[in-house]
């Protein structure tokens, strides 16, 4: 959590000339999102978040992300709405970086979501999946099966220095997922990073999703598997089947899962766990010990992967026939 | 600039039970202040800043700081106003740290203040100095003449690794300041860290001071000297006499300086420069290169000190007879 780019009052004032937001009443760097620089921006017209995109987000992907938020917001879904300038452009440039102003979304992210929060999540996720069906732009997932061998090679032998035998285990898992990858499942726009950090609540009401910068076109069920991994395990990594039942039931109230999707849940749960195990391992070795950015522990996703490896049937996740 | 302590929604909710602020609508870590953890807190009742005091601020000093903000706010001066709980207590505890909620102060800090901003600063500083005269609590300055030899010893020979001959120069300067320290000047509560970061403006109006956690009882003119050093030099470290004239004139419109104060400006300008040279040098060697906290460059204050060493008379600073 850090603000990477320092924006001066002069830079900001020059940038805001393009918008009809009135004069600035407050401007502060905020610790939200790990990949970009985010600022709280209060003006005479209201409250906003200003994001400067740092290098990890590709500039050519930005129209996809911005258009997606506009698409959802136009349909009344709860997410930040991009603010356009006098020429109807949402994306601008500030301090040499692509920059975007979005509306301020009320809500607080939960550290320890409860079972009823998982139901709210399931419902909202299904609504986003349906709302994304007619989104015109395309963006393939750049962190899926085809991309993992490369990431695994970059981590290399260091995996074993993290945990003995881990390298062999990941190699076998990659082979298993390649052989068992499901085909013919419903696809569409997925959020792909819907951790509790990225979901806001106002008391028990889900007030919106944020941080769409991993969104892409992929298997819809994969998004649900990522959510199950992120929301339905306890701090000791025990699986909480009540939370998963709530998640799936609320999701299916909006978009019932097909039989083939249900059958594919165990393999996509493994896939979702491996994806975060790999990126966390990579970041673990890429981040200096002394850095103030808190590294996320890869072992959490190693344990989740091991749990999924022991599961044989989707009913073990609380998903009903 | 970083958020050091992570506060969960559960911790926050439990903490806020003591207050009458309604439920939380937003909560985000903000990059404000280097020493403490600061959070933006929006509730049904309004906008606030929550501060957790990390170890650099001494717990026993907190009643002084909090009482001072209450004292200023009660007199209508522009600064954050501490929010009290149902038992009329401002200081609480959160995540094992002393915690304080203050009102949200509108305004933006300036990267490059202009001459007219220095006039606003001078006026507000004099008003704060006068308003502090009847503040009941005491806190001696812990970063003044008596404390510098110790700090200098901790830096030791590394000063010369920063700049050749620096150690000898600082030793001589410490001796000079000890021999020439002014006595009998008006004293009172000073802010002691009134850099542009800590002064908010709304357009050209000064909207308030923040970050009173170096405030203490000391020579009032020393505060003015610190402001001159921080506000009246250009990015290339050239002294801008117009800015200093504006600062002093506006200050004197509210509190005219005594003859002895004017005579003491050159020595206190040197003292103010040495204080920040020493702390920046100390932090320079104490902060790892890779840390995301941006180290402040000691050479800026070395150049300012060298400038002041060449000044003979207060009129050279634009201060009139």
Explain what the structure shows.
Two copies of one chain form a homodimer. By secondary structure, chain A is an alpha+beta fold. Chain A contains ten helices and ten strands. In chain A, the strands form three sheets. A five-stranded antiparallel sheet of chain A has the order 1-2-3-5-4, with helices on both faces. The first copy, chain A, has a three-stranded antiparallel sheet with strand order 6-8-9, with helices on one face. In chain A, strands 7-10 form a two-stranded antiparallel sheet. In chain A, strand 4 and strand 5 form a beta hairpin. The longest helix of chain A is centred in the last third of the chain and has 28 residues. The first copy, chain A, is globular and about 60 Å long. Chain A starts with 8 loop residues before the first helix and ends in a 12-residue tail after the last helix. At the A-B interface, helix 1, strand 1 and strand 6 of A face helix 1, strand 1 and strand 6 of B.
């Amino acid at each position: 959590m850090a603000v990477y780019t320092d924006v001066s009052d002069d830079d900001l004032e020059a940038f805001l000339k393009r918008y009809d937001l009135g004069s600035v009443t407050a401007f502060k760097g905020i610790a939200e999102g790990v990949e970009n620089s985010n600022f709280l921006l209060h003006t005479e017209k209201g409250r906003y978040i200003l994001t400067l995109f740092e290098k990890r987000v590709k500039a050519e992907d930005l129209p996809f992300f911005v258009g997606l938020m506009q698409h959802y917001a136009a349909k009344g879904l709860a997410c930040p709405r991009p603010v356009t300038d006098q020429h109807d452009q949402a994306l601008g440039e500030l301090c040499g970086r692509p920059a975007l102003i979005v509306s301020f979304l009320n809500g607080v992210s939960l550290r320890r979501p409860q079972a009823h929060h998982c139901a709210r999540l399931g419902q909202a996720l299904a609504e986003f999946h349906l709302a994304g069906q007619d989104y015109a732009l395309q963006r393939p997932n750049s962190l899926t099966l085809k991309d993992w061998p490369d990431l695994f090679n970059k981590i290399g032998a260091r995996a074993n220095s993290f945990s003995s035998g881990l390298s062999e285990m990941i190699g076998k898992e990659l082979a298993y997922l390649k052989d068992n990858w499901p085909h013919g499942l419903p696809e569409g726009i997925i959020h792909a990073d819907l951790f509790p950090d990225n979901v806001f609540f106002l008391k028990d009401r889900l007030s919106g999703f944020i941080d769409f910068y991993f969104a892409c076109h992929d298997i819809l069920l994969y998004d649900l598997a990522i959510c199950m991994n992120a929301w339905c395990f306890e701090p000791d990594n025990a699986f909480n089947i009540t939370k998963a039942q709530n998640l799936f039931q609320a999701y299916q109230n909006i978009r019932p899962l097909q039989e083939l999707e249900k059958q594919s849940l165990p393999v996509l749960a493994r896939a979702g766990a491996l994806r975060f195990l790999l990126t966390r391992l990579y970041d673990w070795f890429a981040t200096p010990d002394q850095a103030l950015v808190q590294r996320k522990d890869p072992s959490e996703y190693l344990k989740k992967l091991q749990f999924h490896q022991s599961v044989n049937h989707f009913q073990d996740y609380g998903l009903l026939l």
